[in-house]
Amino acid sequence: MDGAMPSTTNPSPPGAPRYLTHIVPFTAGGDKLPIARVGEFRTAHYSQNDTSLNDALWSLYPVEKSLEELKRREVNAKAACDRLIPPMSRRYDRNALVTGVPIHEHGRIAANLHTLRITYHRLLNDPTIDVEAKGDGRPAVDILLERKKLGLVEPLQTLLPRLHQLNEMSKCHVSKQYKLAMLRWCRALIDMYPWTATPLIFTHGEAFGLRIGPLEADLWSKIATGAVHLSTDDPSWAIVAKSTAWAAISMRYNTHRHLSLAYQRWCKGKSLDKLVGQFIPPHLIFARALADPDLALRDLIVKIWAADPDDGSWAHQQCYNGHVTCVTTIEHIPVTRSALPGGCFDLDSEGLPMFPVGMEH
Predict the structure, then answer these.
(1) Helix/strand/coil for 314
(2) Which of 187, 188, 206 is nearest to 252 (CA)?
(3) What span, in angstroms and rounded, lies between the C-alpha atoms of 232 and 226?
(4) Which domain of life is it from (predicted)?
(5) H-helix segments, 38-129
(6) For a pLDDT cut of 70, what percent of the chain falls above it?
């Protein structure tokens, strides 16, 4: 489920920041990079007054493929991208970005379908979730396959308000009903198809003007947050935390806040995943998970958060030839309540940023 993650085997070039290990090259290119879309979408397509591009929309999503085939596509896309821009590169060739962004996106689409299907299936089959909350109980693959076969596309003017409302209403995590909240957030992601926040459909202006990019990133990050909480009792949820956090990290259209939060969830999931299969008392799980901290990743989390202009804008908008504007250039960041433009935090007991109230979920 996390095969799209960057390679950590290549040694860092001399002077390269350690956090380059965790960077995704093909979310770079900025707002000037030409990206071929599957169609020239207009207001009439968004409202579904014109349905002529519906087949082109659905052609992006191999919902009919098996989990094994989705994983194969994800892995193959990652290998192709690594050949274009080797992991740990500091600067990216523009031609390689033009060629590689669509490859990355197709791999990401396959990875997200894989992650969503597995996560939703696990939640649907969880006996602790009330049956009524599961609706008709159909798996994600059945829902999406039927919609694709019929060419069904919901108009954005009705879809987006409904999804935003569902996102805001699903605050079961406040009462620690994490699984129920995660089920609803997964269903919101399923309902979003085929209007997912990919540059193969939306320009950056559309993705942020419609707020569909931040919405999708928020949903993935919240699911990852729930999985991290569940991992304190059952480390097998850690792989869900990793894969859902990575879905947000690998998005092109993301904000600093959601990107930093997703990296934090991935960091925790990565640490907890080491404990799968071990018998460890719940109260010792986090202590054991953090015995081998990834300091480079923690550095990246803080640098992205510190670069946040606090306006909900695109984190990678000016990352033209490398990821330089999505992270702060400040070498030594004072961790105080007045130091950071994107909010304030202290470090928690795990050495990770404590996000302001309202951002922790």
Answers:
(1) strand
(2) 206
(3) 10
(4) Eukaryota
(5) 43-47, 54-58, 67-84, 94-124
(6) 76
Tens-digit pLDDT profile for residues 104-113: 999 999 999 9
**Domains in the chain: how many in total?**
1
Residue 171 lies in a domain: yes
306 occurs within a structural domain? no
Number of continuous H segments (helices) and E segments (strands) in the chain: 13, 0
Query: Domain range spanning residue 39?
Result: 18-253
Burial class (CB in 10 A: 0-12, 13-18, 19+), 165: exposed
* Assigned domain for 212 exists: yes
Contact of 151 with 63, CB cutoff 8 Å: no
287's enclosing H/E stretch is: helix 285-289
CA atoms within 13 A on the CB side of 284: 6
Within a domain: 266 = no
| pLDDT tens digits for range 132-186 | 888 888 999 999 999 999 999 999 999 999 998 887 766 655 556 889 999 999 9
The answer to whether 170 touches 185, Cβ cutoff 8 Å, is yes
* pTM summary value: 0.84
Task: Give CA separation, 126 vs 2, 120, 225, 233, 243, in Å.
Answer: 23, 10, 18, 15, 19
Phi first, then psi: what are they for 314, rounded to 5°? -75, 120
